[in-house]
Design a protein that fits this description.
306 residues, single chain, mainly alpha
Amino acid sequence: MNLFSLFNSLPGAVAQGLIWGIMAIGVYITFRILDIADLSVDGSFCTGAAVCIMMMQAGCRVGVAMIGALIAGMLAGLVTGIFHTCMGIPAILAGILTQLGLYSVNLKIMGKSNQPINVDKYNLLVSLRYIKDVPWFQNTLLIVAILIIVIIVVLYWFFGREIGCALRATGCNDKMARAQGINTGLCRVLGLVISNGLVAFAGCLLGQYQGFADVNMGRGAIVIGLAAVIIGEAIFGRIMQGFAWKLLIVVFGAIIYYVVLQVVIWLGIDTDLLKLLSALVVAVFLAIPFWQGKLRARVGVRGGEQ
C-alpha cells in the first residue's frame, strides 16, 4: 500500500465531503429541526444535477443553471409537503412517492439516463480538475467552503426570524405550536422546500464536479446525509454548541465520512461492500447515544448504591 497515493487522494475526498455537506445540511433541517424522515432527497439530489447540466447544455450560464437547480429542488420539496399536509399522507410515504415520481421526471429532463458535461467546453464553477494546480480563486475546495459559509449565515439569519422560530417550534412540539397560533402545516411545507432546495443545489455542484448527471446518482443519498449528521453530532456535538455550529458540524461529518471511505478504498476492501459499510457506520453512530445513556444509567445506579 502506497501511503502517498492515499494523501494524494484526500483533497478529492474532502471536496466531495464539502459538497455532500451541503446536502447534509438539507437533511439536518428535516431530520433534526422538523423531526421528519424525508426520503424525497434521493430524487431531488439528481434533479438538481439534471437541471443544472441540461440548462448549461442549452446555453445558460453556470450561475443561472444553479439557480434553476435550486428552484427545481424547492418544487420537489413543495410536492412532498403537499402530499404530507394537504393529502394527509405520512411524511415518510410522501417522500417515497416524490422520490419515485422524480425518477421519471429526471429521465425526461435529461432525455436519457446519463448526461455528460465537459469542463473544457463549459465554464463550470467546480470540477475535479480544479483541485490541484489551479489559481486559488478557482480551487473547488475554497469555492465550496465559501458557499457553505454563505448558506450557514443565511440559514442562521432565517431561523432567527419569526418564521424560522415558528418552523423550529413545529418540529419541537407540534401541538404546542398550533396552540400558539402557528400554521404548522405551512411550516412543514416550508422546511421541506428549503431542505430539498439545498439538496438539489448540492446535486448540481456534484454534477459539475464529476462531469455528468446520472439518474441513479441520488440513490442512497439519504443514508449519506444521515451519516454526516450522526457522525458530526457524535464527534463534535458536545464541544460545538449553537445553531450555526450544529450546521457546521454536519459538514464536518460529511468530510469525515468521505475520508473514511477513501481510506477503506485505499486499504483494498471490495468496493461492492461500500454501501454495506455505510449502513453499518450509520447504525453504529446512531447507537452511540443509546449506549452512552445506558452507561450513564449504570454509573448512576452504582454511584447511588455507594
